[in-house]
Specification:
single chain; 235 residues; alpha/beta; Rossmann fold; six-stranded parallel sheet; 10 helices; 9 strands; 35% helix; binds nicotinamide-adenine-dinucleotide
């Protein structure tokens, strides 16, 4: 458990060229959530779902981490026990910024992974399409699926989020509209809180935050890092 929790969403990867979720021209303007990202879509639209995540996986291959990912990776290296980094993102930009698997938690799954629908074994397939990796689970022969949490499915790693929320003293929210996770509630659980988004969101009441930055993450991150360091050094 850490004193500082950094929780990010699609906005932190926007400047690396990965579409966000709900903004104009975002990913979901072009796809129906029910078709490719909702519990049951593997039964009703298996080929379409597979194709959608194959495209997302291939799309992130050439994407590079931006300054915000890099600063967070450096902070985690400097204060390994005091900072926890959790993300709603399924991309691998924190890993590309140098973070180890053990240093970052992907609450909603990870694009580079497939999971067996029966035995639950997880396979890192990098940027390959599902079928070019294997048409069946190499361990038990059952069907594979993207290791992504679809809407309506359980998110096992939320348990870690709950534990971190119960112990942290400062929460830092970067690049999330708050539609999936209730970050206004999270801010009320902690003594200090920072919010960084491009603009206000209908799903967030920013009056509950100690500090609010409406700016690009790459522009806000230096001041946010300074706040975190001051907080940890003066605790
Ligand atoms: P969202 O699209 O609902 O909200 C994005 C937020 O980021 C907005 O509040 C916006 O103001 C802010 N933002 C946009 N550009 C920014 C920038 N340059 N700097 C700082 N903030 C910026 O995203 P969400 O709340 O994360 O919810 C989306 C869900 O979709 C998540 O569960 C996530 O798993 C998934 N998703 C992930 C990725 C990814 O892995 N990169 C991309 C799209 C969607």
């Amino acid at each position: 458990m850490s004193k500082v929790l950094i929780l990010s969403g699609a906005g932190i990867s926007a400047e690396s060229g990965i579409s966000t979720f709900r903004e104009a021209d975002g990913l979901w303007e072009k796809h129906r959530i029910e078709d490719v990202c909702t519990a049951g879509c593997l039964d009703t639209n298996e080929e379409g779902t597979k194709k959608f995540y194959d495209a997302r996986r291939s799309d992130v291959e050439d994407k590079k981490p931006n300054y915000a990912h890099q600063v967070i990776a450096e902070l985690k290296q400097k204060y390994p026990d005091d900072i926890s980094v959790l993300t709603q993102n399924v991309d691998d930009l924190f890993e590309k910024a140098g973070m180890k698997d053990s240093e970052i938690v992907h609450l909603h799954g990870f694009l580079r992974e497939l999971r067996c629908r029966e035995c639950e074994e997880i396979f890192d397939v990098a940027y390959q399409s599902q079928d070019s990796f294997a048409t069946q689970c190499p361990s038990c022969g059952a069907k594979l699926r993207p290791n992504i949490v679809f809407f309506g499915e359980a998110a096992p790693k939320y348990q870690m989020l709950t534990q971190e929320l119960n112990s942290c003293e400062l929460i830092v929210i970067i690049g999330t509209s708050g539609n999936v996770l209730d970050v206004t509630y999270f801010a009320q659980l902690t003594e200090h809180s920072i919010l960084n988004n491009l603009e206000p969101s209908n799903a967030i009441d920013d009056s509950y935050f100690t500090k609010v930055y409406y700016a690009k993450a790459t522009q806000a991150i230096a001041e946010i890092a300074e706040y975190i360091e001051d907080f940890l050094e003066n605790e």
